[in-house]
Amino acid sequence: MKEFLEGSRAIAEAVKLCKPGVISAYxxxxxxxxxxxxAQMVANGELNSQxxxxxxxxxxxxxxxxGVATGVRSYTATSSQGLLYMAEVIFNIAGLRLPLVLACAxxxxxAPINIWxxxxxxxxxxxxxxxxxxxxxxxxxxxxxxxxxxIGEDKSIMLPVMVCVDGFILTHGxxxxxxxxQEEVDKFxxxxxxxxxxxxxxxxxxxPLADPDYYxxxxxxxxxTLKDVLNFIPKVSEEFRSVFxxxxxxxxxxxxxxxxxxxxxxAMGSVCGTIKEAxxxxxxxxxxxxxxxxxxxxxxxYARVCEALKNxxxxxxxxxxVSLGAYAPLAVEVKxxxxxxxxxxxxxxxxxxxxxxxxxTLESVREIFRKLTPREVSLEFIDLKPELLQxxxxx
Length: 395
Fold this sequence. Notes:
Distance between the termini: 53 Å
Number of strands: 16
Number of helices: 13
CATH topology of the largest domain: Rossmann fold
Structural class: alpha/beta
Oligomer: single chain
Helix content: 25-40%
């Protein structure tokens, strides 16, 4: 059923349909509306769940860790400093192979204090062992929550999923969203039946001390499973299409006018909507431009990126996060995808924009396409006022 909803409300409605038995979170802008809505649903008797109020994000993550560890589907949400405060537990959840779903309302990381959107928070935890899916719009935010539980809880995967939604742009933005019916969701997402859980009747140990003879094997196991996820997400995406009718193709990335494109921007999140509008405008003028939208940042779909961009002459990678002292995070992955390949783009340039909520406008995107010249740009900060501040790193 189509409804005109704030993004946070739409996400809460999706979570309610997934029937988590434990919810815990600590309020932090711009995530707060999500769990406020869920708390109201629990209080109204619309959702049969234990909502646990806690004193910090670290505690919230610990509560939902305990919920999943005892065999109960669980949920939390956070942003920015809150996600970083959870970091110890975030690594634990993945290491324990617990299929939690967490919404990260992406927000800049302090200092200086900034409550507006970029993707520094989730990108900073890219190596924690979590699957990370990035939504372009609120429909995707809803759908990726449903898919997140389906992916993470599969007995061949058993890993947590972070659904990343741009703070304010999506969480507080109003859009028409198709909220599916409970019967459809139940068909797609069966009740959680864990492979293992903490149970006094059948004692087991989770997360014991692992000495050097065993610890490395746990990391290797997660790495191998994340490779399997690249093959499993397309299967879940096809299941989703058959039940709900929305087609995310392989669920790893989206190609927008890339087949005959001479210039392509690679990006992820809500900025892709702006890029699509610019692509449409330039295509109408005869320009062969396109967009490659990354949905699954972890695991990263290297082979699919190569396939999508192998015939493109010039590529720009647009990051909304920065790896200080190094190349930009998404740009590193795109460049790594072509390492050792015979057929590669002539130019892969790196652009950083939108930090701390700075607007990325149509003119911003046009400027990126204009600057895609035969000379590779190693790293460029787009100030977008529209004057440019250029800075190259380590050629």
